[in-house]
Amino acid sequence: MPQFGVCAPVSKSAEARSGGWDFIEENVQVLLRGTVPDDQWQGGEAANRSVLPIVAANCLVPADMKITGPDADLERLRTYIIRVMQRAYRMGMKTLVFGSGGARFVPKGYDPAEARQQIIDFASLAAPIALRQNITLVIEHLNKKETNIVNSVAEAMSYVRAVNHPAFQCMVDSFHFWQEDEKLENLQAALPSIKHVHLADKDGRTAPGESGKSDYRPLFHVLKQGGYNGPISVEALGFNDLAEAGQKVLAFIKTQWEEA
Question: pTM value?
Answer without folding.
Answer: 0.97
